[in-house]
Specification:
The structure is a homodimer.
Chain A lengths: L33 H15 L6 H8 L13 H15 L9 H17 L23 H13 L3 H30 L16 H6 L3 H5 L4 H15 L17
Helix pairs in contact in A: 1-2, 4-5, 4-6, 4-9, 5-6, 6-9
Chain A binds a DNA duplex through helix 2.
DNA sequence: CCGACTTTTCGAACGCGTTCCGAAAGTAGC
DNA sequence: GCTACTTTCGGAACGCGTTCGAAAAGTCGG
């Protein structure tokens, strides 16, 4: 029954720093470093757009065979996470508020904005253990949410639960936004709103043609506030360790 | 700035009923009906599993050429939505509570459970205008959420906003769950929890190895309740049409 | 110097979703 | 019975992510 969502880990398949083992290594030496591949990927994206980032094109840009790339990364998702860490690394890190609730909201908004500004985030954001694949330089957003929850009096379990709720809501918004934008860029129909049976779905029929207008608004902040307030209200305000663990969580 | 999320429409590219134009039609007559294709798809899924549902295999199962399928549906996403509607049609429709908040929760849970039980939902749930592609026999879940919101005193804008919040949260949970389950089925590493810098991310470091255990719990219901309560609390309780539209929504 | 051993490189191939375009098979008008 | 016209059919091909296996290029122990 319990779904297995993103757990963190220090360094998984895709580490961040280019490990320096050019000394006394056995086997054929590499002709291309990971840094060179990432640089080629950035060049390719800047020049042709991120949807043109394919394995073969990247290999051509880097001047190597396509299959050689698979000795530097497990699959394309790995490459995207590498690029994401690289992108977040360059991001400036704003100061977070001290007040717990404000810190949660600021951290979540930073997380959301980082993903929203990264058009190809949708392709990896739901990877198993995604959060655990982030560099420590990106984990400050997760830390901000968890620390805010703990600072408000949540137990560890409640804090992780709050983060997961925020994560689900955020990643859902990002993915729907990304796919809508993609289709909208293509020649999509305006999705008018035709004949709904008013006796079966009266409220939807009443909204009718207004739906597209209403659904086009950016309601992420309101939803985030509502979610966080609701979760914080359900959390025990006893700041002592694990007390009251039976309340407010899946018992 | 405003993202364009799922708007409904009565019947888009993928209608539900097999239209009956076998009379006086010009052009070459079809050898295969849409119903036959869907039946072949269900057969294929039941026999080999849904991950084996590919265009070519489906064509072979239906006894037609692969490219012929594209005269019956726009693309594979269309096929999946056809199958989803077909699946939801057979679903029993539980009675919904009268009380607005309870109706919202019941409708959202039904939506969530329907998607969660449909393993390939993740591939289409974020399609642009997804909700609008649903048959009326599936829209009762959306109607339940919107009607609950309106019944609580929300304006149309607030009701649509509430639905979108619930939709984002739900689809995020579904997608993360689906991708986690997929990887976990394969030989995934246990995602332990290595060495985090306690001075940079103290709370994450403190949680440490407990994260997987805490993240494995099913916290969807708590998050849903929190989100709905928060959004209802922010909505104006004036049940008169569009009054108070400036409050609680994107002004 | 020479065979193990290890690692990298990459051409060939697979199955995928999808597009192109010519051939086939009907109806409609004459 | 012909000639349009319209629609369906499906083989060929494209680019995609990914796997396989053989060749290449180093280190190491003797």
């Amino acid at each position: 029954m319990a779904p297995p969502p993103p757990p963190p880990a220090s360094s998984a398949s895709s580490a961040s720093s280019a490990s320096p083992p050019p000394q006394g290594r056995t086997g054929r030496p590499r002709l291309t470093s990971r840094a060179q591949i990432l640089a080629a990927a950035r060049r390719l994206i800047d020049r042709d757009g991120w949807e043109k980032l394919t394995i073969r094109r990247l290999a051509a840009e880097a001047g190597i065979g396509a299959t050689t790339l698979y000795h530097h990364m497990r699959d394309k998702g790995d490459l995207l996470i590498l690029l994401l860490n690289d992108y977040v690394d360059r991001l400036e890190r704003p100061p977070l508020p001290e007040e717990p609730r404000a810190r949660i909201l600021a951290s979540a908004t930073a997380l959301h904005d980082a993903l929203a500004a990264w058009p190809w985030a949708a392709e990896v954001a739901t990877t198993d253990g995604f959060v655990g694949l982030l560099d420590e330089s990106a984990l400050w957003m997760v830390e901000g949410i968890v620390s805010g929850a703990v600072g408000h009096g949540c137990t560890q379990a409640q804090a992780v639960g709050l983060f997961r709720g925020v994560w689900y809501y955020t990643v859902g918004e990002i993915l729907v936004r990304a796919h809508s934008a993609g289709r909208r860029a293509a020649g999509g129909r305006p999705t008018g709103f035709g004949s709904l049976d008013a006796s079966r779905v009266p409220h939807l029929a009443a909204i009718g043609a207004r739906w597209p207008e209403l659904a086009a608004r950016d309601t992420y902040p309101e939803g985030l506030r509502a979610l966080v307030d609701g979760l914080l209200a359900g959390a025990t305000p006893t700041p002592s360790g694990e007390a009251g663990r039976a309340r407010g969580d899946a018992g």
